[in-house]
Design a protein that fits this description.
The chain is of the alpha+beta class. Helices cover 32% and strands 26% of the residues. 5-hydroxymethyl-3,4-dihydroxypiperidine (IFM) binds at residues 343, 351, 356-358, 482, 484, 629, 631, 675.
Amino acid sequence: MSEKWIYKIDDLKMDNEALLVNETIFHNANGYIGVRSNFEEGYPEGYDTIRGSYINGFYDITEMKQAEKLFGMAEEKETMLNVADGQTICVYLDGKKFSMFDGEVLSSSRWLDMQNGYTARKVLWKAPNGKEVDIEIRRMASFSHLQVFVIDYQVTPVNFSGEVIIESEHQGNVRNYCNPNDPRVAGESFQHLIPDHGVVENGASYLITNTVSSGLQVCTGVKNTISAGETETGEIVLEGHHAVQKFIIQAKQGEAVRFVKYMVFADSIRYQDAQTSAKDEMEAVSSVPLEQLYKEQREYLDKFWESSALEIDGDDALCAAVRYNAYQLIQSVGKDPYCDIAAKGLSGEGYEGHYFWDTEMYMQPFFTLTNPEVSKNLVEYRYSTLDKARENARILGHKKGAAYPWRTIRGRECSGYFPSGSAQYHISGDIAYSTVAYYLATGDLDFMAEKGAEIIFETARMWVDLGCWHKGTFQIHEVTGPDEYTCLVSNNYYTNLNAQYNLHWAVRLYKLLKEAGKLEPVAERIGLQESEIEEFEKAEKAMYLPYDEKLGINPQDDSFLNKAVWDFENTPKEDYPLLLHYHPMHIYRYQVCKQADTVLAHFIFEDAQDMETIRKSFAYYDKITTHDSSLSTCIYSIVASKLGLADKAYEYFGDSAKLDLFNTHQNTKDGIHTANMGGNYMAIVYGFGGFRLKESGAWFAPALPKQWDAYRFKLIYLGRHIQVVVNKEGTTFTLESGEPVQIHVYGEECLLENSLHFPLK
Ligand code: IFM
């Protein structure tokens, strides 16, 4: 790690594990496309590599084998596709191919520049015949031209003048990665894309492929350009679904040969004619100087960092890690309503490109507070799949409402294992929760009338249908909460609160929209009756929330505390994560949590309990949580902050900040952990900053970790741009733009006009 905008590694390790992890860490994405950071020249035989380029939301449908055909079980799933490989560029000196595994690597480094938006690799290489070249490769997924990926490849002869050959390939015959032994990636390899045809036009190759089952098409285009004195440019040779072009250059000692490879992607979900779109985009980008694309990239990121600045003084390495996490969020988030944020972003094939609750509860808060338009788009995406959620609810046996699928791309349920999949009903409440959060942060009632409220009414209907009345309380049975080591239970505390909040907001929005004269269209569209609102209110008020008098804590569910506690003392270190070493049913029989569940409820729905209960609950669950899920430590950090457990909060925060950069979960090769990255942002803003967004307004209770000199963040609240600086003297809130606004600081309501200062508490 070096300066604050750069994440850099020197003296690259060539062991297979490090290579795979770096393919992920240095991937390039822009929310539409993602390209793993594979070596252009490839790897020697026997090396495992995940060579992939992906389009957010572009999928095929594949069979999900269910050994026992129980009614309603998903028998098909959507899977994100590796669409084509345009990364290959090979450099030859006297017939000898440049390779990091051959000749001598005199120096090497890789870095990500988060201000300028590109990754780079620099190598000083000595060929076996003694010729030396300096190679610097920059790669960028453009934020201003979402369809475009560029490789800017420069070769400089160091100690000779003479022939350098460059060969560039465009490969359409690609497959997805698979690992039959890991439930977190696809189990089998399957050819999802069938070559349709290829064309060469205006110095570019275009490969058009069709998916096997989803009826979609993708066109990728590649155009190579070179700036060097004397060059013999070969024709593009297109054979089958593979194109290659060769350049013979008479290079001069000390003079860089600059080879620029443009790759464009167009899919038939977004573009009526994928081929025409790819060609148009190729013409548009390759006809302007590359410097223009770099400039636009910088402008985009300047704006992004301006609104989402997150800085820490006193720990540069941690500051860079936190910035890295925020950068991955903007790389991963979909920028149109056809997609969302996959659990691995666009960096790898883990979880097959599926979208989970990770978006709403871990990543969307970052966008809601710093980039509300992006947050709105995420709600739009869920709205676009609302019909599918209605269908899913019927499959699950609900007469009314919508139940969002646990994991999906276009809206169908893609979870094959329902106990820790479809049974996680809380995802519907999570989507309602983040829709409300968007409203609370923006006050955008029009959008709620148009789309948001429909999500909230339909999910509320589902809760009423799912729950049942027992001795005057409203209860929810046979669901799984966030903790995937405890499945199919009654009255999961988090789920019940989350349903209650959903019901509360259905009632609230009904009234708000009615008062504003905006209710009719949505009520008519879904046939919403006043009597249903009464039902929502009744269920909300009577929601059963488990509480254990003896321990003074909220049990995770009705039976949780009756189980034996997992034998942590005799569980060897190598048995973690437990899910890879123990049968699920064995795990389910014990008190052991994979991730924050009740503790998450104490953060999200903190007003449901007093501090004493939260303190006891935290202490209890802290001892029995393995954090085998990457969605856990960030939440423990936030609740530890709330409880004033500064050291614990900092320790958990550190674990979350470094998760991918240090590969602490051992599976970063399959992609980044985007939810953890969003959670890491929350651990600062909601944890140390004590921020909460509630119906009653914006609340802050900042603390300064003793390891830091200061930290700063910005947020947009009801259209106001607010900067928060916390240092040893206290906290300063500055209204950077917009009308004065009420905020709450340490429980006190105050008007932020210009700036406000509070000593630390
Ligand atoms: O959504 C999560 C879940 O909470 C834990 N298992 C992994 C999923 C995807 O990140």
